[in-house]
Design brief:
Blueprint (H helix, E strand, L loop, with lengths): L2 H16 L2 H9 L4 H22 L10 H22 L5 H7 L3 H11 L7 H20 L6 H28 L1 H22 L10 H29 L1 H5 L5 H13 L5 H19 L3
Helix pairs in contact: 1-10, 2-5, 2-10, 2-12, 3-4, 3-9, 3-10, 4-8, 4-9, 5-12, 6-8, 7-13, 8-9, 8-10, 9-10
Protein name: DMT family transporter
InterPro entries: AA-Vitamin_Transporters, EamA_dom, EmrE-like
Subcellular location: Membrane
């Protein structure tokens, strides 16, 4: 198997894992404070990451990598989880998932700015078309219906795109799982203290569903998914493999309908199919 194919396979596994993040977050914030959810998932994943790094005797990153690891931590450990958790207080997970269609464009932009990649002009046409479909869908739903939720989701996309590109760039030197583990460990002291500070006054009111959702976003969304995702981006190219995120709305909408009984409209399905169709063209012209 060549490096590019391996990158797409690893990237797809990562996307499949991430597709459950927003539905799980939606379930969790019904009973848990969004800030507590954000810091708790990071603290739990950070503790597991520290154990992995110690078990495999990984050396400390170079001082020059500290800035990039902080950017990863702010983007995918804190920024994206917190902003999406806050957004999901205003919008359904099915609605927010469609915004994930903007992530390939954001990731590709940061791949150029931070990763030094240079996709061909046709790549940008396909990527912009996919993003335009997503944005058009959001507007037809009525941005005024929940401007706070939509703006929070857009902010989440920007910081996540930066975190993805920066982490993938580092993965070429440190390894995919090492990057997310070090970013989590860097965040662990602050996240641990904030977890204790924001702990619910009574845990008896929190049902099993919320705890299961917290476990999922801690173990899979915050840790295991990145093992595959960063490795895939490093192997197949950040801009190219990043287009696989266009599959995430489709998978996420299916989970939202299955687990949360949320209505999935025809417009959602049509928009998702249209945006997925753009990935083939974008992949062809990514390099």
């Amino acid at each position: 198997m060549d490096r590019s194919t391996a990158g797409w396979i690893n990237g797809f596994v990562g996307v499949a894992i991430f597709s459950g993040s927003l539905p799980a977050t939606r379930l969790a914030v019904l009973q848990l404070d969004p800030v507590f959810l954000t810091v708790a998932r990071a603290a739990i994943a950070g503790g597991l990451a520290a154990i992995l790094l110690l078990a495999f005797r990984q050396r400390l990153p170079a001082r020059a990598d500290a800035g990039s690891l902080i950017a990863v931590a702010l983007g995918v450990v804190v920024g994206f989880p917190l902003l999406t958790a806050l957004a999901l207080q205003y919008v359904t997970s099915a609605h927010s998932i469609v915004f994930i269609g903007l992530l390939p464009l954001a990731t590709a932009i940061f791949a150029v700015v931070r990763g030094g990649e240079r996709p061909r002009p046709a790549f940008w046409i396909f990527s912009l078309c996919g993003s335009a479909v997503v944005a058009g869908f959001a507007l037809t739903r009525g941005l005024a219906a929940s401007p706070a939720g939509d703006l929070l989701m857009l902010a989440a996309i920007v910081v996540c795109g930066l975190g993805y590109a920066e982490g993938a760039r580092l993965s070429r030197r440190l390894g995919g799982w090492q990057v997310i583990c070090w970013a989590l460990v860097f965040s662990l002291p602050a996240m641990g203290l904030l977890t204790v500070a924001t702990l619910p006054r009574t845990l008896s009111d929190v049902g099993a569903t919320a705890w299961i959702a917290l476990a999922y976003v801690s173990l899979f969304s915050m840790l295991i998914g990145f093992f595959f995702w960063y490795r895939g981006l490093a192997q197949g190219g950040i801009a190219a493999v990043g287009q696989l995120q266009l599959l995430q709305p489709f998978l996420g909408l299916a989970l939202a309908a299955l687990l949360l009984n949320e209505a999935v409209s025809t417009a959602m399905i049509v928009s998702t199919v249209a945006v997925i169709a753009c990935v083939a063209g974008a992949r062809r012209f990514a390099a």
